[in-house]
């Protein structure tokens, strides 16, 4: 059976919204392998009981670790409830993570409404759905 890895990430002011969203979609979440940045992952595990592979906290490199997973072709989708109203010290990392989703055509939802649409799509976790993985050529 195919394994689907999703990343769940939320900035501090968005964490409770993410937990609420996860609980609304808990049956879908249970079908996925979940990775998360450190603090978000800890909260998800304690508040929902889901198993979570935790990376570093975002400001300490967690966003970049998830970016590396994308670059290796190992991420199915990203749910990133980022905070548009408070500056983050690691904003370049946040931008880099979102950029890599576009580079590698990885589905990404940045708010609860988009996340709702994504997980309720019949294509989500469907073995018939293979988003095009771009091929890049770089000459040195
Ligand atoms: O800062 C984050 C994403 O940019 C999230 O990090 P934490 O999950 O450790 O709070």
From TrEMBL:
GO terms for molecular function: methylglyoxal synthase activity. Keywords: Lyase. It catalyses: dihydroxyacetone phosphate = methylglyoxal + phosphate. Substrate binds at residues 11, 15, 37-40, 57-58, 90. It comes from the Bacteria. Residues 1-140 form the MGS-like domain. The active site is at 63 (proton donor/acceptor). It holds the Pfam family MGS. PROSITE patterns: METHYLGLYOXAL_SYNTH, MGS. SMART domains: MGS. CDD domains: MGS. Its EC number is 4.2.3.3. Belongs to the methylglyoxal synthase family. Catalyzes the formation of methylglyoxal from dihydroxyacetone phosphate. This is Methylglyoxal synthase. It comes from Alteromonas ponticola. The lineage of its organism: Bacteria, Pseudomonadati, Pseudomonadota, Gammaproteobacteria, Alteromonadales. The gene is mgsA.
């Amino acid at each position: 059976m195919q394994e689907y890895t999703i990343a769940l990430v939320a900035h501090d002011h968005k964490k409770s919204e993410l937990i609420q969203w996860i609980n609304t979609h808990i049956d879908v979440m249970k079908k996925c392998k979940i990775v998360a940045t450190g603090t978000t992952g800890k909260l998800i595990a304690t508040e929902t009981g889901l198993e979570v592979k935790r990376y570093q906290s975002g400001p300490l490199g967690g966003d970049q670790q998830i970016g590396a997973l994308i670059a290796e072709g190992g991420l199915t989708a990203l749910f990133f409830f980022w905070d548009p109203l408070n500056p983050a010290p690691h904003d370049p990392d946040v931008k880099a993570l979102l950029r890599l989703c576009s580079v590698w055509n990885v589905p990404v939802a940045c708010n609860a409404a988009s996340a709702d649409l994504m997980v309720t799509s019949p294509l989500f976790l469907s073995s018939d759905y293979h988003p095009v993985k771009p091929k890049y050529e770089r000459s040195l």
